[in-house]
Amino acid sequence: MMSGLSGPMAANRPQLDRIRGVEGLNAELCFSCRKCSAGCPVADDMDLAPHQLVRLAVAGPEGEALRSSGIWLCTSCQTCTTRCPNGVDVAGVIDALKQRAVASGVKPRDGRMLAFHRAFLDDVKARGRVHEMSLTARYALRARRVPEGILLGIGMFQKGKLPLIPPKKTATRELRRLFERGKGK
To answer: Where in the sequence is the domain holding 130, given as residue range(s)?
Structure first.
């Protein structure tokens, strides 16, 4: 775990400019109160907590943030962003770091994280929302392994909790435009 990430931030200008390039993140306003990390449901499993990732995004060695398992474990539940007294979009900063890691070719230590990330985005891009069965199949193919919860999934399917047929596509044209616009950055 990192230490020494408290007190006023001396911003690393190029990093701060990249983070500022994503509208409304306000990462430089973080004063490390740790409310985001205290509310995060997965912080205990992260190597760097949300407040530490924000600090590194603005002032620290960017490579350390990009190699963190924390950016891949984040569930984007927005609890951290909601709890921030300064209006920092903590989940947005973490997502920006994840996008930067992918664009820079920095892979997570556990390849399953990137496999899930790509499978999830592919599923959203294909139909505008996630279909659990399709996501599981995409993930299994990308990760080249049977997902750990397959028996649970079979039980859920048998009880009618997981539909076999995906839902009707929604807003895929608009989503494709967003995905294309995101590639240009």
So the answer is: 111-183
